[in-house]
Amino acid sequence: MTLMEGFIRDEIYIDFGSEPLFGQDQLYDSFPVVFPTVDFALMDTNGLCRIADRIRKDAGYVPLYPLDEYAQEQTDQDGWYAFYVGINGCSKTRMNSCIEFWVGNSQSPDNEEIYTIDLSLDEQLYLYQRLDCQCRKYLGKTCMELLKDAEKLMEEDPHYYGPCPKSIAAEETT
Fold it and tell me: Which tops the pLDDT comparison, 152 or 33?
């Protein structure tokens, strides 16, 4: 196992307290290509929060958690992060090329800003495997089955974007 595989295994967890968000996106090459997407909220683990703090610190903002020369009193103690990652029916890896995080309830000027943690192709592949394993365990579906559900929703209503209705999810498991 590589260092990155270990980090992804230990620090990336889907927040199953929130439902996956089914939708669609569009890529314009020489003509528009529409494809299904499924977005997941991630739990704000220590590792992800440290990466987010580093990114914000490099941008000139005070971290939310003690980091380097910043003590507890020098941090933005009221703020929090929300992490999101998505899979899609367009790319080879089936993953978005980054993990997005949002700064919430912060006293900092970057409150409600969205940042990204870029992922290499190998990281995308490891992350897809991790998400697929968690989806099988907790949702009883693979990531590909979730993308197929999103594709069905696109066919039924091209403007739909939201949680998967229970009737469609139930049809796939029976």
Answer: 152
Inter-residue contact 29 to 156 (CB < 8 Å): no
Domain that holds residue 79: 3-173
Sheet holding 114-118, edge to edge: 114-118, 98-104, 80-88, 32-42, 21-28, 162-163
What are the pLDDT digits (tens) for 8-58?
A: 999 999 999 999 999 888 887 777 788 899 999 999 999 999 999 989 989
Structure tokens at 116: 């990204």
Concatenated DSSP letters for the chain?
--HHHHHHHHH--B-TTS--EEEEEEEESSSEEEEEEEEEEE---HHHHHHHHHHHHHTT---SS-BTTB-GGGS-TT-EEEEEEEEESSSTTSB-SEEEEEEES-SSTTTT-EEEEE--HHHHHHHHHHHHHHHHHHHSS-HHHHHHHHHHHHHH-TT--EEPPHHHHHHHH-
- The total number of structural domains in the chain stands at 1
* 117-127 per-position pLDDT tens digit: 999 999 999 99
Q: What does the alpha-carbon distance between residue 85 and residue 26 come to, in Å, rounded to a whole number? A: 17
Q: Which residue has the tokens 């796939």?
A: 172
